[in-house]
Design a protein that fits this description.
This protein is α+β, with helices and mostly antiparallel strands and 141 residues long. It contains two helices and five strands; from the N terminus they run ββββααβ.
Length: 141
């Protein structure tokens, strides 16, 4: 998935902080629901294109990266919740209270593992600048 962003600052490790407009399923066109904040978000991305502060850029986030990240963040804790409950209830016959405690422990372990994986593979999941868009200064905001 590619998004247009503005480079806000550069870091010494070869990354850049970019500002991206939030995307919404509704498209911000009706104004009826008042749920859209229409704001922006800042993200640290790989600056492989050599962008400078203030440049308008195209940022690429691979679909595989998004799905892997979502799987680790959402599915792993839920899978461990179910697995720990099932093992405690049906395999070990610990009873309802201890099974629920085991399930909560599994969920917490899943979150902990997701955080560790996220920290270890942070660069693998990082989006990257793939193009600097040449926009005349008179047309910039």
């Amino acid at each position: 998935m590619n998004r247009i962003a503005t480079v806000v600052s550069l870091k010494s490790d070869g990354t850049a902080v970019v500002e991206i407009e939030r995307a919404s399923a509704c498209g911000h066109s009706c104004g009826e629901c008042r749920l859209c904040d229409g704001g922006t978000l800042k993200a640290e991305v790989e600056n492989s294109a050599g962008a400078k502060e203030g440049d308008i850029v195209t940022v690429e986030t691979g679909t595989g990266m998004l799905l892997t990240g979502a799987g680790i963040l959402y599915i792993l804790p839920i899978a461990l919740f179910i697995a720990f409950y099932g093992i405690a209830e049906w395999v070990l016959s610990l009873g309802n209270k201890l099974s629920v405690t085991a399930a909560i422990t599994g969920f917490a372990a899943g979150i902990g593992i997701a955080v560790l994986i996220s920290k270890r593979y942070k660069k693998s999941f990082r989006a990257r600048i793939i193009e600097i868009i040449d926009i005349p200064e008179s047309l910039r905001r």
